[in-house]
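It is worth pausing here to work through a concrete case rather than discussing structure prediction in the abstract. The textbook approach is simple: state the sequence, then state the predicted structure, then interpret. We follow exactly that order.
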Amino acid sequence: AGPREKKIRLGTFLAMIAIIAKVGAASFAVKETLMSIIMTFPALRSITTFLNTDTDFEVRRASASTEGLKAVAPGDVASIVLKGVGLSWLEKPLIRGAGIDTRPDKIIAVLGPSRCGKHRFVELLAAEVPCTKGTVFMAPYLRRVLVSREALFFESMSLTENLLLAIARQKDKDHERAKSILKTMGMEDLIPLVDKDVDGDNSDMEKMHWHSKVSFTDLRLLALCRALLADPHILILEMPFMYFSPEQIQKVKRLLTEFVRTGGIQQGAEVSDSLPRTVIYTTEDRTACHFADV
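Step two, the predicted structure:
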């Protein structure tokens, strides 16, 4: 933890332990071990947003108090409400008077030019930073997943381990869901890698080098796949259409529409819960807002 922090989240701690165990088992030199941990650590904050949700309530309560529930969302605990939200960064006002007031099961666009604070705004929505003014209400039991612009993955894990990272109790159907989403995204060439991971046919070296077979654009698509497999109630996307071709954008839009309209992706006969799903995304392109409901 940093000098001002007395504790860290359990999800972050467990992820660090997992990294140290994997790196340590490889018997690398001390310098290489430390560098591997340092290079991997930036991914922890984003990935553990949806790990160990029960242990993250303290941060989430900062943006969803009981008084806020009574004040801004009477009778509808699944509503998403921001009123007069302000956020300062490095003592500089970054966001002033931001507001959202909508029921769930919506696709919401946040439009703004470059360097206007969209990145910090999505961090605020994901409960990674608290607002300095105003009221934010999203019920703490609603799973929130943030997909940032940086597609962050653990290089020491296989493709399948990365995709299913947020699923605590994995079942065979989760592997099938992963393959189905890959197919929908037009990434059928990666399905054999998932099959090899599941069957145990990949060597440790092959598992760790899957990322050399994918492009930067592929990694961004895979980050979205991983988030959808986590089945959040609120999916927060930072610039989700950036770097994609028109064909890829249409595939992403179809998948996000299915996610909201059907209450999750590839749930099959077993539905995880009856709560609706919501997508919030940022963009600098006004035409990209036409896709949204709000």
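Step three, interpretation. The two ends are 39 Å apart (CA to CA). The first helix runs from residue 10 to 25.
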